Amino acid sequence: MKSFTPLKLIIVVYGALFMGNFPGSTYSAPTLIETTCKRTPHYDLCIKTRRSDPKSSRADVKGLAYIAAMGILNEGMANDMDQVFLGITKGNPRRAIDGASNIPNQTGKCEKSFAKSPLTSDNQLVNDLVEVVVSIVKTLRY
User: What is the tens place of the pLDDT at every residue in 62-73?
Assistant: First the structure.
């Protein structure tokens, strides 16, 4: 499932520019990250995803949602991610949630394409990341 696409490059570059615009939070970063991740169904995965990106220490909740979405993209899921990123960055949580919610359908199709899928753990990771992203996006106030 992992592949490099021009869309991924565009999203990474846009994300780098976007992340530089976060002014921070009224909470300290560790507290904000912990509070945000506790609102998701996969706390440990949420924390791990944040630790993988040094920008998370100065990101607000919107930035944390973006970082979580990058986790999905890094696992090779480029389809529908443009909708997720645009929804987060443009203040349209419904668009982000709709885009993310379609991803488990794709991983399901991938699973069914094999008699015994070698990608089951990767697909489950992507599905768990989707749940993290959707949980965070639902908390955003635009």
Answer: 999 999 999 999
